[in-house]
Amino acid sequence: MDVIIRQARSEDAEKIAPLIINAIGDIADHMTAQKEPAAVLEKVVGMIRGEHTRHSHRYTYTATVNGAIAGALVLYHGNQAAALDRFLIEQLKKQGHYRTIEPEAHTDEWYIDTVSVDPACQGQGIGSKLFDFAEELILSQGGGKLSLNVDIDKEGAIRLYKRLGYSISEPWTIIGEPFHHMVKVISRKADKASFASDTL
């Protein structure tokens, strides 16, 4: 199976939106100020097509299999979050909705907002390839901390992220719900040290 990961394009929005909504759940309702699934989907499609929110195609990457989108990664730097969320808050305010959008990462971290794989394509290693791709992107920028948040009740996901090298760093709250904030340090030096220990 040939998986190609590339920068998302605005015309991918209708394929990517369901993947993002499936991954972030109620957060999508909060960020769109909508409750009806069709309305949430329409708003998220618009966010992906646009350029100024955290779910813009500018911060999204797609995993394609035989030309079809099978997974998505949303990744941005924590120091971008305030500006991205401010834009969304202002857009919602113009529509008569008043929302606070909580930061999901520290300003010295890269942040994986979403990794989502089409249910029909799960179990094929696509999620792992998206995580690997995120690390390569950060290495290309000189390395740094890579973080994510996981619902404290999702024990399987927590075990997976620990296997991938993430550690729980602190509690986090998003729309009133408790999460674990998990962090992994990405560096060539760490990779070499790990390789050296593996070969001893």
Give a quick summary of the entry.
The chain is an alpha+beta fold and 200 residues long. Helix content is 41%, strand content 28%. It has a seven-stranded mixed beta sheet, sandwiched between helices.
- Any idea what the shape is? globular
Residues in helices, as a percent range: 40-55%
* Poorly predicted residue ranges: 192-200
Radius of gyration: 17 Å
Notes on the protein architecture:
The chain is of the alpha+beta class. The protein has helices spanning 13-24, 26-32, 37-49, 81-94, 126-140, 155-163, 188-199, and strands at 3-7, 60-65, 68-77, 109-117, 144-151, 167-174, 177-186. It has a 7-stranded mixed β-sheet, with helices on both faces. The longest helix is centred in the middle third of the chain and has 15 residues, at 126-140. It is globular and about 50 Å long. The protein starts with a strand and ends with a helix.
Spell out the key features of this protein.
seven-stranded mixed sheet; 41% helix; globular; disordered C terminus
Topology:
Elements: E1 3-7, H1 13-24, H2 26-32, H3 37-49, E2 60-65, E3 68-77, H4 81-94, E4 109-117, H5 126-140, E5 144-151, H6 155-163, E6 167-174, E7 177-186, H7 188-199
Parallel strand pairs: 4-5
Antiparallel strand pairs: 1-2, 2-3, 3-4, 5-7, 6-7
